[in-house]
Design goal:
Elements: E1 2-5, H1 15-23, E2 28-31, H2 37-44, E3 50-54, H3 58-66, E4 70-73, H4 79-82, H5 87-94, E5 99-101, H6 106-114, E6 117-119, H7 127-136, H8 139-157, H9 159-175
Parallel strand pairs: 1-2, 1-4, 2-3, 4-5, 5-6
Helix pairs in contact: 1-7, 5-8
Length: about 180
């Protein structure tokens, strides 16, 4: 299972996921609501493995993540996202879930360098299908990427550690 939780707006491109759902025995759970929901419902009505439950609570989101192997962020190529690390990535790392995305730039490089997810080309409709098929044939790789994702979170994004380092840095700057 691969999951997404968020607002279904024009920042996201689910076409590759729809294609992959047509060709793989993998459940895509796309939780949330927004302008794209009705279009997604219409396009996937015949796909029992493309599940659109609507809005879910924080507790339901947590349970969904625990019952999934991968998190999904089909973010369109936009400069503002390519030069930053979206919250979806940090949430995924916190939960120890490998990220699947088409987003290049800072986030894509982070996934590659840290080996905690996979990148696919949104322009190649078969790329996501091929990469997911290969990934699900190698459960040890998923476990490896899961461990890397959690370790990355603890090292670079965990609030108490990062906040403490920021405070120390600011104190040192103030003393200069």
């Amino acid at each position: 299972r691969i999951y997404f939780v968020g607002t279904l707006n024009d920042v996201f491109d689910f076409e590759s996921a729809i294609s992959a759902a047509q060709n793989l025995e993998v459940d895509f759970v796309i939780a949330g609501d927004g302008p794209q929901r009705n279009d997604l419902l219409a396009k996937t009505i015949e796909l029992p493995n493309f599940i659109l439950p609507g809005w879910i609570s924080a507790a339901q989101s947590y349970v969904l993540s625990k019952r999934s192997q991968l998190s999904f962020a089909p973010i369109k190529s936009r400069l503002d996202y390519e030069i930053s690390i979206p919250n979806k990535f940090i949430d995924s790392f916190r939960l120890g879930k490998p990220m699947v995305t088409s987003l290049m730039g800072v986030s894509g490089n982070l996934l590659i360098d840290s080996q905690c997810g996979i990148l696919y080309s949104a322009e190649d409709s078969d790329d996501l299908t091929v990469k997911l098929r290969n990934l699900f044939l190698d459960p040890k790789r998923i476990e490896f990427m899961s461990s890397n994702a959690r370790n990355l979170y603890l090292e670079k994004f965990e609030y108490q550690k990062i906040y403490g380092e920021l405070v120390n840095h600011l104190v040192q700057l103030a003393r200069k």
